[in-house]
Every structure is written in structure tokens, then in C-alpha cells.
Amino acid sequence: MTQQIVLATASIFGALSIVLGAFGAHALKKKLTSEQLASFETGVKYQMYHGIVLLVLGFNFNPNFSNAVLFFIIGTILFSFSIYGLVLSDAFGKKMKFLGPITPIGGLCLLVGWVLVLLNCLA
Can you give the residue ranges of every domain in the chain? Predict the structure, then answer.
């Protein structure tokens, strides 16, 4: 993992969270129930939070945090994008139920990333 990859991924996550947040708030507002919109917003928030974390780790690049960075990237993709898929597929009448178990796996990856950050800080 290089500093450029970490910073590029952080930038992509940040930019996409702005686009998807605006898309959810405006274009999907009439299509989604309040519960679906809240779920979609959760995906956007977690994507932005972890984009910011990756930005901080990228600017303070240390190869010891590479595994944490990897878990943050994988976790964000699995967690946030499975939520987007579940919400959008449900809203358009073709719910992709197979995405349901992916969300908690993504959350677990995010948790592992945070634990790895803690362990590296304590080492």
C-alpha cells in the first residue's frame, strides 16, 4: 500500500459520498421511504467517515497501518455499497437480498481496521 493509493482512495470515497448524499437527498427523496432514506444516509456517512480516516492516515503515511487501511477500504466498500444496493434495489422492486449478509461483514472489517489502528498505536 502506498501513500498515493491511500490518498486517492480517500479522495474517491469523499467525492462519491458527496455525490451519493446529494443523489439520495434530492433524486431519491420521492422514491424512498423515510426508513430507506435513513439507511442510504447511513451508508453515505460511514463512507465519508472512513474517507476522512483514510485521508488522515494517508497524510501521516506509515506502512505499519497498511492492514488497517486495507480493512477500512474493504469494509467501506462492503458496508456502504451493500446498503446502497439494498436500498435502491428495494425501492425499484427488485430487492437483492444476497446483499443483506454483506453489510455486517463490511461492518466487521471496519471494526477490525479500528482495532488494528489501536494495536499499532500501542506497539
Answer: 3-122
